[in-house]
Amino acid sequence: MSVERIRRFLSEAGPGTPCLVVDTDTVAERVRELVREFPHARLRYAVKANPEPAVLRAVLGAGGGCDVASPAEIEACLAAGAEPAALSYGNTIKKPADIAFAWARGVRDFTTDAPGDLAALAEHAPGASVSVRILVDGPASATPFGQKFGCEPDQAADLLAEADRLGLDPAGIAFHVGSQQPDPAAWEAGVAAAAKIFADCAARGVRLRRLNIGGGFGITYRDAVPSLAGYARAIRSAVAAYFPDEPEVLFEPGRAVVAEAGLIRTEVVLVATRFGRRWVYLDVGRYNGLAETENEAIPYRLEPVDRGGERGPVVLAGPTCDGDDVLYQRTPYELPLSLRAGDRIDILDAGAYTASYSSVAFNGIPPLRTYCLEGGTLADGA
Ligand SMILES: *Cc1c(COP(=O)(O)O)cnc(C)c1O
């Protein structure tokens, strides 16, 4: 139904392409569904997925909070009406000035994963609650984090004991199994590792209480993933199996909140045959919204607006002069054989990690324009 509302807006307003339209009623619906599936957990929407003010208002209005990664994201959430207590600072890579800014604005929950960051927290956010992020392998993720974030599980108890010694509040353990994670069992490894650290800390006189299971819930783009209920069931049973006392649970969905609420309308710029393959060039590409096509990680669903009929294979590419601005050359896509320059194509489930990843002016192409709908019409300030 969000697609119908968005298409009605597109046909009435006729904005130029490319553009992203986000239906914020769907955002609110997803937040309510996630809250229902994880009834005792606090939801902290990962703002980087889509930081539009109307999206943040919808998340907050439906009872969610926000996970922020920078001073600008904190400002955006507060401007959208968030209480500082509804914000958590999940980025473990932060300057002392960023920490001081967050603390001055009332943010009290932070995630850390290294002694240097912990020392900066003790100095600039004295007494703050800290969770230690551990590295959990999630090989099935479409966009894995590799080893960039999270300490080794063996180092976590030392960091939490150190947090305690520095006068911080050692709250618990955080992990993230990688975005677009199709395997609900990926969370079990994190839950098990966290339970062991809870026990190690208790033996050292540090009582932990919080378990942050991150984001990563997948969306059905072209390949089916489990339902939110399926993810929730697997995670709830892992927590029950490894934790004798139920911890305080936090989760940080980004994609699952906003992806299905958004649609990108794009236009075909050129169709050409090269070495026997039909290339279709769109006015949206890697640099103005489709960053997640890097390595063809996210296979979006495409729907031609103007033409049907017999389809044939295509290579899809973006509009810029960069050789890497190719969307799909290995992933099989088929589009109508009658497709011509000027025809429109809709990219579905494109609300997450599109506009926020768009460059400001590569080749003079402006960032992806976003329109947010509330109750089917243009939201205030959108
Ligand atoms: C990006 C991010 C998320 C959101 O991940 P999704 O896969 O979009 O759900 C959650 N937590 C942290 C710390 C992140 O960096």
Distinct compounds present: pyridoxal-5'-phosphate
CATH class term of the largest domain: Alpha Beta
Order of helices and strands: HEHEHEHEHEHEHEHEHEHEEEEEEEE
The CATH level-2 architecture of the largest domain is identified as Alpha-Beta Barrel
- Mean pLDDT, to the nearest integer, reads 97
- How many distinct helices? 10
Count of extended strands: 17
| CATH overall fold name of the largest domain | TIM Barrel
> What structural category arises from helix and sheet content?
alpha/beta
CATH fourth-tier homologous superfamily of the largest domain:
Alanine racemase
Rg over CA atoms, rounded to whole Å, is 22 Å
Write down the domain tally.
2
Describe the largest sheet.
Answer: 9 strands, mixed
* Percentage of residues in helical conformation: 25-40%
Uncertain stretches of 5 or more adjacent residues: none
Q: So what's the overall shape? A: elongated
Question: What's the quick description here?
Answer:
This protein is of the alpha/beta class.
Description:
The protein has helices spanning 2-13, 24-37, 53-61, 71-79, 96-104, 115-124, 153-165, 186-203, 228-242, 255-258; strands at residues 19-23, 41-46, 65-68, 87-89, 109-112, 129-133, 169-174, 210-212, 248-251, 262-274, 277-282, 302-304, 311-317, 326-336, 344-347, 369-374, 377-378. The relative contact order is 0.16. It folds into two domains: 25-258, TIM Barrel; 260-376, Lyase, Ornithine Decarboxylase, Chain A, domain 1, CATH 2.40.37. The protein is 30% helix and 24% strand. With 382 residues, it is of the alpha/beta class. Strands 1, 10, 11, 12, 13, 14, 15, 16 and 17 form a nine-stranded mixed β-sheet that branches. β10 (262-274) and β11 (277-282) form a beta hairpin. The structure holds pyridoxal-5'-phosphate (PLP). Pyridoxal-5'-phosphate binds next to α10.
